[in-house]
């Protein structure tokens, strides 16, 4: 099975702008007290000043200004480490920072060799719902149990979005925001959908500006007010496991433990398995 080649960015400076915006937002969210700095004078905003962040990172305030303005200053991996530490980023936020800067995180362990084709085939040997997502969160492989659980992965024809099944695989985000049944199927839909958008942003990293991803994000933002609001929060979160509840129209309430694995050679492919932990009520 051949894998799709990655698209070249339509705007070579978009990554720098996203990096600058991300750093600025997190600087504004971090108080001087949380950063271990004394509160001095009146502030127009509660976050760190550029000079304070520069001091914590061991760089000049001018460099921080240029970085936040999206100039191509090409920060080194060591400098990014200091920025991540100063801003107290979570592991997911740190990974996103390095993705945007197109740098390898020195703390990231080397991945072992493994063929992704085996991951794509493996879902059919799993007896519980299982599927594989690509970078756009298209469902590039899935077993019959997943198809049944997610109601055929269909989007609603009542929305402005129309996508004949022959045009490509289903997409998890389109299902989540364009299928009205998803709101009843997925327990605590508002919280889960907000978290999934944050996980998707983290998953995209520095590829947000590539054509396939940009087209999907623009489509979701235009057609779903909820997605648009969640996306503008600029939150990133690590995709993690845990219990996932569903209220299925045919099978009643189902509870699964979610397990997500990545293909080592192609980490943009994720194998998601849902292992039952409770019987339907």
Notes on the structure:
The chain is built from 12 helices and 5 strands. The protein is of the alpha+beta class and 281 residues long. The protein folds into 2 domains: 14-101, lambda repressor-like DNA-binding domains (434 Repressor (Amino-terminal Domain), Orthogonal Bundle), CATH 1.10.260.40; 116-278, Beta-Lactamase, CATH 3.30.450. Strand 1 and strand 2 (139-142) form a beta hairpin. Helix 11 crosses helix 12. The longest helix is centred in the N-terminal third of the chain and has 16 residues, at 14-29. It starts with 13 loop residues before the first helix and ends with a strand.
Outline of the structure:
With 281 residues, this protein is an alpha+beta fold. The chain is 41% helix and 12% strand.
Key terms:
Lambda_DNA-bd_dom_sf, 12 helices, Beta-Lactamase, 434 Repressor (Amino-terminal Domain), Cro/C1-type_HTH, 281 residues, alpha+beta, elongated, five-stranded antiparallel β-sheet
What is this structure's SSE topology?
Elements: H1 14-29, H2 50-57, H3 61-68, H4 77-86, H5 91-101, H6 116-122, E1 130-133, E2 139-142, H7 144-149, H8 172-178, H9 180-185, H10 189-204, H11 211-223, H12 225-232, E3 242-248, E4 252-262, E5 270-278
Antiparallel strand pairs: 1-2, 1-5, 3-4, 4-5
Helix pairs in contact: 2-3, 4-5, 5-10, 10-12, 11-12
Organism: Thiomonas arsenitoxydans (strain DSM 22701 / CIP 110005 / 3As)
Protein name: Transcriptional regulator
Domain HTH cro/C1-type: 43-94
């Amino acid at each position: 099975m051949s894998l799709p080649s990655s698209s070249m960015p339509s705007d070579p400076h978009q990554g720098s702008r996203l990096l600058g915006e991300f750093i600025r937002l997190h600087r504004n969210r971090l108080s001087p007290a949380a950063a271990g700095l004394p509160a001095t004078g009146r502030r127009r905003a509660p976050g760190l000043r550029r000079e304070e962040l520069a001091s914590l990172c061991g760089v000049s305030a001018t460099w921080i200004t240029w970085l936040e303005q999206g100039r191509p200053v090409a920060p080194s991996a060591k400098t990014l480490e200091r920025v991540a530490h100063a801003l107290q980023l979570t592991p997911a936020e740190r990974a996103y920072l390095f993705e945007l800067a197109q740098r390898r995180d020195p703390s990231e362990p080397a991945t072992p060799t493994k063929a992704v084709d085996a991951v794509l085939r493996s879902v059919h040997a799993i007896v519980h719902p299982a599927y594989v997502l690509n970078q756009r969160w298209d469902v590039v492989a899935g077993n019959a149990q997943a198809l049944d659980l997610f109601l055929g992965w269909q989007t609603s024809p009542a929305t402005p979005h129309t996508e004949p099944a022959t045009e490509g695989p289903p997409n998890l985000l389109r299902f989540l925001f364009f299928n009205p049944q998803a709101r009843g199927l997925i327990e605590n839909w508002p919280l889960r959908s907000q978290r999934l958008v944050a996980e998707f942003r983290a998953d995209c990293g520095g590829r947000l500006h590539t054509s396939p991803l940009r087209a999907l994000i623009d489509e979701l933002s235009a057609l779903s007010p909820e997605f648009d609001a969640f996306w503008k929060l600029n939150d990133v979160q690590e995709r993690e496991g845990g219990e996932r509840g569903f209220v299925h129209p045919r099978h009643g309430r189902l509870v699964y433990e979610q397990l997500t694995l990545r293909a080592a050679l192609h980490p943009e492919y994720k194998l998601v398995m849902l292992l039952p932990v409770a019987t339907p009520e």
